[in-house]
Amino acid sequence: MKKYFIALWILFPAGPSIAQWSVKEGDPRAQDSNQYYLYQVFSKAQWSASNFATPGDMKWFSDARYGMFIHFGLNAFVNKDMSWPIVYDHKAPDSGHGSYPDSAWKKIWPGLFRLAKFNAGEWVKIAKDAGFKYIVIVVKHHDGFHMWDTKYADFKITNTPFKRDYLKELVTACHKAGMRVGLYYSQRDWYHRDYAPVDTSTLQRIAAPPYYKAKPGKTVVPGSSHKDYIAYQFNVVRELLTNYGKIDIFWFDAAWWGGMFTADMWDAENLTRMIRKLQPGIIINNRTSLPGDFDTPEQRIGMFQLRPWESAMTLNGSWGYEPSPVRPVKDLIAQMLKAAAGNGNVLLSWGAHFDGAFDEKQKDSLLKIGRWLKQFGVAYYGTRGGPWAPFRNYGAVYKGKRIFLYLFDWPNGSVSLPALHNNRIVAARYVNIDEKTKWNTNGRHWIFHKPARPDATVTIIELKMTGTVQENAEMIKGSMFDDPVYGKKAVEKHIDENSWKGNRYRIDLPGHRMVTGLQTSSLSEKIEVFTSQDGIHWDPAGVVGNGTTELSINELKTGALVPGRRASFVLLQTKRPLRMKVTVYTVQ
């Protein structure tokens, strides 16, 4: 059966949602034609030929679960997101314009950058008190401004009235406090004169990722100056990893995005190998168009997988300080736990005021999370996702002989989970409420009943087991449509060759529904799927193929692709009539 089991926690963030997963050839996730740009596919040979951290190097990262992302720079002058709404000319292959002339962000704002209230030690103390286990510092965003004293550029913080090396002070404070530290470095650079990963004379714009293609008769090539940009980039990366002591993470930011950026644009294989040589044990994300050490969802909680991943999230929808309200602490804690249940981390971003002051409201929210983690972090830090895959209303993590269940909702007054093979429950207790647990078993399932007063954020149950908990079949088997977010079976049909009208078969749904996906079984190599609200106008939904295949049907909402599309009809189209089975899943 061609299938995957992906439990995706759906969020509705304020800004656009991006994600990048690196997958091996044959991974069923890459067959989702609706989200092809999220999955960079590598052949086994390509994967094997690349460079990686060891499992031992990665252990601390998975144990940590929670990192702070510091987005701070010239953008703080106008209390806006970094680079995108600021820089007027987004250099190709990016497109679009920010709101400010070059004279503002290149000349005026740096001349006012004094950071009179910046205190690196205070920032790191807040991070520790807030429960963060590592900090990733933005050292250069797409605007090309260097937050350290580089000798390879003049557009840098030591040429402002502040004069000091911001990065040196922060890294030193991290080392002094025993805090792991990473560096965010964007390969994009809309300031640097030599930056030209694509020659614009060879390309034309298109609407979908990668947002460009070669002009007829042309091949997309780099601009003539880009080789000098690559030389500069090797120099500054070498400088960052030589002059600032131990660095634990290197965080790039030019995601593959359907081929928008490619590894050759950065000489990425040689660049990342140099990084590992300079900083043995360092871990590197997957945004150089190489597999990297971990995947990087953004503004969404990632899917369950054994390969490490980290969701970069924001406190209030902005990368960098904005006066928008901070998301409720309850929601922030829930997203952290849901990430852990999917075997991933959360990298939570905030930004300081232009004078370097930590915003009091943001600090208050972070410290509330820290107090919660101080009390209940035993059920979070050092865990691994499983042994059951997460669903919308619950998740699970484990370590040693203990399992922690995260119960966010009790839609039926209880939660039933498959009993583990060769492992039994010795004791069960609530971690964060003062009641006695109620549970029973029917031999095949363990059934946990809703307490009288469940916690408003999450009810946590600790299960002590007879044996050490391992990754097991319960975690990875099943259908994507087992996840309640996909609703229920609305239509199930066994279609024979005589039921088709030409090469088309129309399915009338029982009313106007939110169609979330199809499961098909056939011997056809290609069946196109369409949806319609009126039976006249049809929208492509994807392609299914030979064997048993599952197709999620998504819709773009607030920048994120989420399951579901309004429809009254589904249309199948193939080269010739055939026998097949189709099941349509909908939410009422």
Write up this protein:
This protein is of the alpha/beta class. The protein folds into 3 domains: 53-379, Glycosidases (TIM Barrel), CATH 3.20.20.80; 384-476, Immunoglobulin-like, CATH 2.60.40; 486-587, Jelly Rolls (Sandwich), CATH 2.60.120.260. The protein has helices spanning 44-49, 55-64, 102-108, 120-129, 166-177, 226-240, 268-278, 329-341, 360-376, 473-476; strands at residues 21-24, 39-42, 66-70, 134-140, 180-185, 203-205, 212-214, 249-252, 283-284, 310-314, 345-350, 384-385, 394-399, 402-407, 414-418, 425-430, 439-441, 445-449, 459-465, 488-495, 504-522, 527-532, 539-544, 547-552, 554-557, 560-563, 565-573, 580-587. The strands form 7 sheets. Strands 9-8-5-4-3-11-10 form a 7-stranded parallel β-sheet, with helices on both faces. Strands 20, 21, 22, 23, 24, 27 and 28 form a 7-stranded antiparallel β-sheet that branches. Helix 4 (120-129) packs across helix 5 (166-177) and helix 4 packs across helix 9. This is alpha-L-fucosidase.
Q: What is the CA-based Rg, rounded? A: 25 Å
- Taken as a percent bin, the fraction of beta residues is 25-35%
Estimate the global geometry from the Cα principal axes: globular
For the record, the CATH class of the largest domain is: Alpha Beta
Count of separate structural domains = 3
Mean pLDDT across residues: 91
Q: How many strands in all?
A: 28
- CATH homologous superfamily caption of the largest domain: Glycosidases
CATH topology of the largest domain: the name is TIM Barrel
> Which structural class do the helices and strands define?
alpha/beta
